[in-house]
Amino acid sequence: MASVLGMLEERETTARVRVEGLREEVARLAEVLEAAEIELDRRVIAREELVEALAVSAAGSAAATGTTADIVSSPAPVPGSIVPPWREGLPVTVLASDYQRILGVFDERQPAGQGPLKAREITAVLGLETTSAKVEGVRSKARRLAERGWLVQETSGAFSAGRRPVAVPDAGSSA
User: Fold this and answer.
1) Residue 159 has pLDDT above 80, yes or no
2) Which pLDDT belongs to residue 64?
3) Where are the domains of the chain?
4) Which CATH fold would you assign to the domain 77-161?
5) Which of 86, 82, 93 has the alpha carbon at shortest distance from 163?
6) Are 103 and 142 in contact (CB under 8 A)?
7) Which of 35, 66, 95, 156 is most buried as measured by Cβ atoms within 10 A of its Cβ?
């Protein structure tokens, strides 16, 4: 019996050492992940600030010359581009096609006066699979549209049609 007990204790010690090694690896990877997330956040903020500053600059130059041709003739949006804050007169065409399609779902429903939609319902109307990955992608885009004033996010988490101006952070801010 003592030899069986000794073998079990040896296996337990081996398992304990392995668990501790894995815990150390997880802690190291958590630090690496945190650093990567911070870097990603910084780069997203920098890109958004640049686009916002360019938009303000373009709007200022258009106002100074009295034309809107510079704004209207801007290059077509590309997938992955940011969503500018909604303002009166800003066309939907400044948005990437995925965002335009989401807004199109609400534009089609608006005359019928139908209520808000959950992300899963938007995903289905768009003709996408309602897998969690697709639904989360649509939810993320719809939330971004709501944060920028293109949609309204209800307290239930559903989204509805509606445009509203949103506060734009000071373009001169360094934060």
Assistant:
1) yes
2) 65
3) 1-74, 77-161
4) Arc Repressor Mutant, subunit A (1.10.10)
5) 86
6) no
7) 95
Residue spans of alpha helices (H) in 66-173: 69-72, 97-109, 119-125, 132-147
Which distant-in-sequence residues (6+ apart) come within 8 Å of 88 by Cβ? 165
Q: Where are the alpha helices (DSSP H) in 66-131?
A: 69-72, 97-109, 119-125
pLDDT, mean of residues 151-173: 74
Q: Is 160 helix (H, G, I), strand (E, B) or coil?
A: strand
> Are the CB atoms for 74 and 45 separated by under 8 Å?
no
CA neighbours closer than 13 Å in the CB half-sphere of residue 119 = 19
Instruction: Report, in this order, helix, strand and coil percent for the chain, each rounded to 5.
Output: 65, 5, 35
Buried b (16+ CB within 10 A) or exposed e, 33-58: eeeeeeeeeeeeeeeeeeebeebeee
Can you tell me the distance from the alpha carbon of 70 to that of 58, in angstroms, rounded to the nearest whole number? 7
Contact 105, 122 (CB under 8 A): yes
* Mean pLDDT computed over 46-72: 69
